[in-house]
Amino acid sequence: MADIEQNSAPVRNPVTAHPPVRQMTAVQRFFLSNEFGLIVLIVLFTIIFASISPMFLSNFSLYAMGRTAAVNIMIGFSMMVVIVTGGLNLGVGAIGVCGAMFGGWLMQAAGLHWLPACFGALIVGALLGATNGVMIVKSGLHSFIITLATMSVMFGAMIFLTQAESFREISPAFSTLGRMKILAVLSPMLLTAIVIGVLLWLAFKFTTVGREILAAGANARAAELSGIRVGRMITYAHALSGVLAVVAGLMLVSRTGAAIPSMAGQLGQDWLLPAFLGPVLGGNLLTGGRISVLGTFLGAFLVTMLTTGLLLMQVGAFWVQTYLGLLLLIAVLLDLARRSYLARNKLV
Amino acid sequence: MSQFTFQAHAVTKTFPGVVALDKVNLSLTPGSVHALLGENGAGKSTLIKIMTGVHRHDAGHMEIDGTLFAPQSTREAIAAGVGVVHQERNVIPRFSVAENIFLETLSADPWKPINYPKLYRDAEHWLDLLEIDADPSTKVEDLPVAKIQLVEIAKALALKSRILMLDEPTASLTQHETERLFSIVKRLRDDGVSLVFVSHKLEEVQEICDQVTVLRDGRNACESQPLEGLGRQDIVRLMIGRTEQIPTWSQRDCRDRDVALELRGVATQAGHTDVSLSLHKGEVLGLYGLVGSGRTELAKAIIGADKVTGGEILVEGTPRNITSVADALHQNRIGYVSEDRKSEGLILMHSVLDNAGITVWRRLQNAIGAFTDRSVEKAVSPVVKKLEVRTPSLHQTIGNLSGGNQQKVSVAKWLAANVSILIIDEPTVGVDIKTKAYVHELIRDLADAGTSVLLITSDMPEMVTVADRILVMDEFQIRGEVINDRDYDRVSHEIMQHIHGSSEVAAE
């Protein structure tokens, strides 16, 4: 009740009394951060799985896990850059598949080298994402509705154009990337995800556009009145989301050596759970305005690890989904507790 | 048995850091219309909130019919017969007229189905009583504003209110609708209801009320006096008379300097039809007006946040087409300090540095659109230091700072951007006296250094202290211009004349 009164008080001349804010060193702050919590969990589950199944830490298992993690990380990044604007992109899967199918078509039907083909695919991703962004900004509707609608439209159009056929004549050099091993355990795909993560971190920390996207996500009205073109920033974020989704799609193409319309399930919905798990476990606020690239990376990695571990323990695939859902719930509740602890002790 | 329906004795209410009500008395007699007057923030709404059970008072006591009245919730206040028609719409638009009238009692038994035929019949009774021409099953959103207002009154009466408070009830009514409302008010009064009438329109107060209580800075400036014999001037003096607090700065006149910003017959989507003004270089031009008079809307149109539909805006003599705040800032060097610091002025979850630096990122970025926080710090810290923002570090989350310090940052970000025209909207709402004086000096310093300032405020002492020249806005039009010679009584009187219509005052 006291809080409510404080807010609704007709403050004419309030005394400038506010609780002192405790200062922490960077190290202390890291120990209380969400990222540190994820690292603890990753170490914990590594120990648990490794002690149950010796297979878990084998070279092959680590390699496969890294490769799968790379895809999940990209899917998480794709959702993350829209979540920071306070929006959602339900079409991560649809856009990812559309772009990847276009890349496959460029390689097979147009006979392009894999590099320009990938580039073309990424451009399609940017365009589809930007279309979402423009429609959200112009209509003023929530991104949930727009991306739900365009997800179906895009996926449907892709099925019509490809006649639901796969492109299997992928350039061998490209599919080699998906099977290549560096130092026996590291996939070039995981390396790509790391590089992209670093680039995203730099972009949201040091570039005007990145910072303006965050400001727009935190408080669109205040951002607009501070001279930020909020509509444009939201469109950029969705375009970026489209590009990142297509990177995930191309990774799958490279891994399987074919561009398959059903690679992300019907309407691309198989990607929805990983798309949310990474950013939410990573501590990105669903209301926008704050980004954690490292958190999303670790969150996606944790999810991949749990999936692999549970499958190694021969838990049925259906149960894996259940556990992941439970993990999402527990993570959100734990984060809530952590936040209220920090707020209560005036640590943020 | 008391002769009063309601009495408040020395009611005191303290919010953290501010005394909102200081020993306030109020006595309501049955069958009267009692005017409750005061400036914004004088304590009117706090008193109403205490009477309706929204807030609890800290000291003093209230009585209804001689028995102690201390509502712990709005429901208790309603049960005791205290009803209020709020300034903000308090109906559910998608519900029917009847559902809205009986909203509080609809849910008495959640398992019992609502008997709609009976509900509509009961509603008819109140609609007839207030002569509202509407079907009880009509959705409220389909009614014109005036009728919605009447539905709210019906809602309050249906709760058997014997004390009915009307908070700015005529703000959105036309002359004709106001007259209808007044005839209803008179009938209720004759039926023995005690009415409390809150309004900024003094002519209406004089027409309908018979008693008056004026609050000023949370205290009684006058207590339950008969309105008869009090002239308009007397009331105005009671409301705003505090000449002693105003520092007397010398008069400034910049009218012979170049024009920095000129509006020629500007019309806006918000409702202005023909606004012309010129702001000279280094001038502090005041724009006085009550809440809802169109001041903030004009500012938003100038900076491109709202649509301009006609006329011309000239910056340093050149016609400009400003369609976004980005245009205003980067192309025209115009800044706007919002009145609503928390939702429009600042990004509370971000740091002091991010808030103060948001306007300079684009200026500091390199060829690939990147900048470092260190360069922003370099640009921002002199201003943050100059304004004496008290923060443990620039990386502190701004939501953790006090209101006054937040306000300083919301000004600092425009100073960092080095704008030449600054529109400042209600800069001292919610800041303490010391910061207030500080902000006034700051505005003065800015103007002396050549920045042109358009100061929007409804705080009269602030206006007389800081502005060089004052434009009075009412109903989205500029009603007059006052040259500020720092003579508080004369200037404030002239401003009030422009707002409340000059004819009557001239006759006196």
From TrEMBL, chain A:
<feature type="transmembrane region" description="Helical">
    <location>
        <begin position="182"/>
        <end position="204"/>
    </location>
</feature>
<dbReference type="Pfam" id="PF02653">
    <property type="entry name" value="BPD_transp_2"/>
</dbReference>
<dbReference type="InterPro" id="IPR001851">
    <property type="entry name" value="ABC_transp_permease"/>
</dbReference>
<feature type="transmembrane region" description="Helical">
    <location>
        <begin position="69"/>
        <end position="102"/>
    </location>
</feature>
<feature type="transmembrane region" description="Helical">
    <location>
        <begin position="291"/>
        <end position="312"/>
    </location>
</feature>
<feature type="transmembrane region" description="Helical">
    <location>
        <begin position="318"/>
        <end position="337"/>
    </location>
</feature>
<feature type="transmembrane region" description="Helical">
    <location>
        <begin position="36"/>
        <end position="57"/>
    </location>
</feature>
<dbReference type="GO" id="GO:0005886">
    <property type="term" value="C:plasma membrane"/>
</dbReference>
<dbReference type="GO" id="GO:0022857">
    <property type="term" value="F:transmembrane transporter activity"/>
</dbReference>
<keyword id="KW-1133">Transmembrane helix</keyword>
<keyword id="KW-0472">Membrane</keyword>
<feature type="transmembrane region" description="Helical">
    <location>
        <begin position="114"/>
        <end position="135"/>
    </location>
</feature>
<feature type="transmembrane region" description="Helical">
    <location>
        <begin position="233"/>
        <end position="253"/>
    </location>
</feature>
<keyword id="KW-0812">Transmembrane</keyword>
<feature type="transmembrane region" description="Helical">
    <location>
        <begin position="141"/>
        <end position="161"/>
    </location>
</feature>
<keyword id="KW-1003">Cell membrane</keyword>
<protein>
    <submittedName>
        <fullName>Ribose transport system permease protein</fullName>
    </submittedName>
</protein>
From TrEMBL, chain B:
<dbReference type="Pfam" id="PF00005">
    <property type="entry name" value="ABC_tran"/>
</dbReference>
<feature type="domain" description="ABC transporter">
    <location>
        <begin position="254"/>
        <end position="500"/>
    </location>
</feature>
<keyword id="KW-0472">Membrane</keyword>
<feature type="domain" description="ABC transporter">
    <location>
        <begin position="6"/>
        <end position="242"/>
    </location>
</feature>
<keyword id="KW-1278">Translocase</keyword>
<dbReference type="InterPro" id="IPR003593">
    <property type="entry name" value="AAA+_ATPase"/>
</dbReference>
<keyword id="KW-1003">Cell membrane</keyword>
<dbReference type="InterPro" id="IPR027417">
    <property type="entry name" value="P-loop_NTPase"/>
</dbReference>
<keyword id="KW-0762">Sugar transport</keyword>
<keyword id="KW-0067">ATP-binding</keyword>
<dbReference type="GO" id="GO:0005524">
    <property type="term" value="F:ATP binding"/>
</dbReference>
<protein>
    <submittedName>
        <fullName>Ribose transport system ATP-binding protein</fullName>
    </submittedName>
</protein>
<keyword id="KW-0677">Repeat</keyword>
<dbReference type="InterPro" id="IPR003439">
    <property type="entry name" value="ABC_transporter-like_ATP-bd"/>
</dbReference>
<dbReference type="InterPro" id="IPR050107">
    <property type="entry name" value="ABC_carbohydrate_import_ATPase"/>
</dbReference>
<dbReference type="GO" id="GO:0005886">
    <property type="term" value="C:plasma membrane"/>
</dbReference>
<dbReference type="InterPro" id="IPR017871">
    <property type="entry name" value="ABC_transporter-like_CS"/>
</dbReference>
<keyword id="KW-0813">Transport</keyword>
<dbReference type="GO" id="GO:0016887">
    <property type="term" value="F:ATP hydrolysis activity"/>
</dbReference>
<keyword id="KW-0547">Nucleotide-binding</keyword>
